Predict the 3D structure of the following.
Amino acid sequence: MANTDRSTDLATIEMLDKAAADGVTTAFDRAAAMKPCPIGGEGSCCKLCSMGPCRLPAPRNRAETAEEREKRRGICGATIETVAARNFVRMIAGGTAAHSDHGRAVAQTFLATARGENENFQIADEQKLLQVALDFGIEIGDRSIQEIAIAVGEAAVAEFGKAEGTLRFLQRAPLKRQQLWKEQQVEPRSIDREVVEAMHRTLMGVDMDYEHLFQQGTRTALADGWGGSMLATELQDIMLGTPVPIAGKVNLGILKEDCVNIIVHGHEPLLPEMLVIASQDQELIALAKTKGAAGINLGGICCSANEMLMRHGIPLAGNMLQQELAVVSGAVEAIVVDVQCVMQSLPKVAECYHTAVITTSSRAKIPGALHLEFDEAHPLETAVQIVRVAIDRFPERVQGMVNIPTHSMDLVAGFSHETINYLLGGIFRASYRPLNENIINGRIRGVAGVVGCSNPRVKHDDVHATLVRELIKNDVLVIQTGCAAMACAKLGLMTPEAASLHAGPGLAEVCEAVGIPPVLHMGSCVDNSRILMAATAMVKEGGLGDDLSDLPVAGAAPEWMSEKAIAIGQYFVASGVFTVFGVSWPTLGSEEVTRWLFDGIGGIYGGKWAFEPDPLKMAKLMIDHIDQKRKVLGLDKARERVLFDMEMRRELEAV
C-alpha cells in the first residue's frame, strides 16, 4: 500500500517514507500486515473463563435461522446477546477506569497543593474554585481560599470511594435529565464502585440479561463523564489555569533542527506542566548550548500536547499515530510518556536513532525504556532530570538521519466552556444566548462534537477531516477534543480564517462576528466533560428545550480505537446525545443487542448509538438528526432575514 493511501497528512507520509528507508516498522505497517479478527471485532468471542474461549459467530452472507441462533451459546450457556453485552460493558469499565484513575491522581495532587504540601502547583483560578465549592455544597462564607481549597480537595477525593449518596456533579445536569437518571436507577454512587460492579456483573455466571448489564454500563459511563473526567478537568483548571484562546502550531514541522527536542506524550498534565517550566530554565538552556544546541524545544503528542497547548502555547507535534514518526525524524532527543495510547514499539523504533524513551508513571513501564518516575511531591526535580537526559543525547544525534518535515499549521485553541461563555457575551453579559439565538434563527444549524482517537485501520486523519468539513459546510458548529482536534487543526480548520473558506454562510457570519473558528478546540479527551457543560448551558439558557436530548446536537468518534471512546460515547448517549462511531462496531455479532443500542436505548435516554464508517454518510446521519430536533422545536421553517433601514428602526422605537 502506498503511504499516500495511509494518511492525508503530508508530514506523516514523509515520515512513513523515511521509516521505510530506515528499515523501521510502524503501526501503519503492522496494521497492514495483521488483519483484525472478525469474531472478536464483532463481539462474538467470550474469553472470561478457561472453559473457552468460546467463539459464537453468526453465519456469513445469509440470515441466521432461529434454530441456529438458539444453538449459538457458549459452554456455560451464555447467549450471543449476553456475550456481546458483557464485552461492551467491560470496555466501558476499562475506559472509565482510565479516565478516573487520571482524575484521582489530579484530586490527590490538588489536595496536597491546598494543604501546602506541594509548592510547585497553586490555586490559579480562584473563581472556578468557588464555583466548584458551591457545586459540592461547601460553605464559602468568610473562609480563606486555602480552607475552601482543602474542603474541595477532600470532597473530590471522596467521590471516588464514598459509601453513601451519588456523585455531586450529577446536579449540574438539567433537572429533567437528573430525574430520568434517578428513575432508571443509573445515578453513579461512587466512581470506583461502578467500575468494580461492572467487572463483577460481567464475570462468568453473574449478570446474564443484556438490558440489565447495560444499566450498569450506563451507570459506569456516567461515573466517567459526570465524575472522574469532569473532576480531572475542573481541578486541573483550578490548579493550572482555565484555558483561554491561545495561538499555537501543529504537526511534526514544529521540531527544530538546532534545538534539543523533547516530545511529551500521554494524558496526565502535571509532569508536562513542570516540563514547560524546566525547558525554560536559563541554566538548562545554557547547558544545552554547551552541547552545541541553540536551545530547548518542547512539543506534544496526544492529550498531554493538548493540555500544554491550551495553557502555554506549546506546539502540537501530532496525534497518536504520529508518536513513532516523531522519533523517525531523527531529531528528537527524548520522548517522555506516562499513561494511555502509548505504543510499546517506541523503544524498538528508538534503537535506530539516538532518542531516549522515558517512562514516568508508577502505573506503566515499557521494556527497553528508561524509567524516571514522576514524584508528585517534587515534580520539578523529575522534570529537570528528564531535560538533562535529553540535553545529554543531543551530541549523539546523527545528522545524516535527521529529516524534519516542513509541514506545520497555525491554530487557535483554548475554548473552554467558560471562554465560550465570555466570547459570546463579554465580561458583563457572558451568556450562551447568542449561540442559542443563532441556532433559533437558523444561521447555525446545530452543534456537533467530533472527538476520539486515530486508527490505522482507516486512512489517517481523512475520516475526521471529511466529516468535519461536511458539517461546517452545512452550518454546523463543530467542537473537538483529543486526537480528532489535531487532525482538523493540521488542515487549518481551527483558525478564524477557516470560517470564510470552509463554513456555510450562516455559520461563517457568526464566526466572523465573534472572531472564532468554525471548529473549536476544547482540550484533551477528559475534557469531553467541557462539552457536557456547554450543552447544559445551552439548555439552561432557554429556547432549545428543557433537556439535553432536545438540543439540535450530535456527536461522533470517526476513528475511535480505545475503550475510553466507548465509555465517552455511552455517557453522551445516556446524557441524551445521538452518537455515531466509525471504523468498526463491537456488538455486530448480536443483531438484537445492536438493534437495542441503535434504537431501543433511545426510547429510554433520548440518545442512541449509530455506526457508519463512511464520513459523508456519517455527516448525513448527524445533520438529519439535527434537522429532526429543529423540527420538533419548531425551528425548521426558514425565517426571512430583513436588513433594517433607519426608517424601520424609528418605527420600532415608536412602538
Summary: Residues 80-240 form a domain with the Substrate Binding Domain Of Dnak; Chain:A; Domain 2 fold (CATH 1.20.1270.30). The CA atoms of residues 408 and 632 lie 43 Å apart.
